[in-house]
Amino acid sequence: MFLPIVAAVIALPLSGAASWHDPQKVLSPTKPPSSFIDSSIFGRRSIAALNLRTPEVLPPTRDSEIHQFQTLATFAHLDFTDCTQFENSGTFDIGIVGHPFDLGVSYRPGARFGPNGARQGARRMSPASGWDMDHGGVNPFRNWATVTDCGDISNTPFDKLVAIHELEQGMRAIHKLQAKNVSTSDAVRLITIGGDHTISEYTSTVLAGAILIFHAALPILRALHSTWGRVAVLHFDSHLDTWDPKQLGGGLTKYSEVNHGTMLHIAHEEGLLSNHSNMHQGSRCTLFDEHFDLDNDLRCGFSYIRARELDTLGVDKIIKRIVETVGDSYVYLSVDIDVLDPAFAPATGTIEPGGWTTRELMQIIRGLSDAGLKIVGSDVVEFTPIYDNAAETTGIAVAQIVYEILHWMVSRLTTITVLLYARE
To answer: Which of 34, 126, 177, 393 is spaced 20 to 30 A from 13 at the CA atom?
Structure first.
């Protein structure tokens, strides 16, 4: 019985051989589906029937018809400009420039990826949708200033001192440029997305006017001093950053003394800070000594509002206390992302539980802007993307804080005659 059946099966193709040459009709739209799956979205379809567009490279255009997850990864879908080239002088007012550097951290590394992470966090923003419900119809990307993304300044990952000098050269080249809107801005302003505070010590860049910058507070304070004199530093940070280098760094060498926690101590020693108007906000760090760290902080001209005090004071009283302390001084705003609780900003190098929420920080910044404090410079620092979550919580928070500070600076800017000053 078995052999005859096999023979019959083998003979079947021979009897219908002519049908092998018939056209393939499996994908024919006139043929009814053979099953439910065939009729579903998982069934086979002719690709030609989908009318796919011709392949194209998405240009870095920022028009509203481009989706927010498309195009090249500039900050908030801004146009790219090589800001180190002198021929681009007079083409922009505010530049966003990255400092991918983290050779001076004391705990978790990775801030060299901060510029890229911040741009990713800002991709939901764009000039075409830069208005919001909280700022009275103002779009900071389309106000008086032309804003551009300058890319990152290249620097070596192998030598801290060489890398800092490379960053300095890039910044010097940018600050030789003239602003586009000369009726409002006497110099280009920069938003520098950075690595750690070490770049602050050695970089002596030429900056003038109001500057929004990440992770370069000491050279900015030096430059601001040449124009504004001593400034009041509003320091939003879980840590003091006024540590004596002998406490943080060991005092072994000048190389080791310069790190991301000694910046404000050095600024005080150089006479850059107000004697009595500086404040820490959101402080909650551990200390190296029972008395010395806080005594030294007071000597550097700082008072503080601890993170837990927000629960008893509330946002309005915190704003009032800051305004009363600062008075009529020019303000330098420094925001370390670890001022936020790890629930809202897990991606930072030296993390501390018990911080503020993103909304609380945004409310305080807006309150200081509404109070009319005279902001002349700012930074947002310590974003380490490798520790962020799948939702990019920290990156999105960093981008939003920049947006809030930009609103403050756009609203407070007045025409000033600026003396350009270069440190040799």
So the answer is: 34
